Amino acid sequence: SLSKLLPIWLGDEDGDKSLAVDNAQMAVDLLQQHEYGHPSNGITKLYAHLLTTKLNVVNFANPEDIYDAMMEADAFLADHDWMDWETLDKSDRHMVLEWKGMFEQYNEGYTGPGTCDDDDDGDMDDMF
Fold this sequence. Notes:
single chain
């Protein structure tokens, strides 16, 4: 069950603004992206995709391709939470959305384990 996997930290464990996801309801709230900001908030989106990534990793997905991004995102989320999105400068916003995109690609199986890159004609038909 999910509770065996918790807590999962979004941000470093000792971070001022890190979130400890310590119950299933909090996890659901984060994934639905309406309690901790809104889907238009890049940090809210990052929370959802980073949490999904960490759940996949604790369920034995290989984190090799996204490990560095996880470390960087956690370091960022130790000092920034969803309430900071509006005040971030353009480069920080870009970075947050880049991490979100990397985790989304990973969670959907486009990067990391289980992918095959033998799509010769570019139409993605033989990718899976």
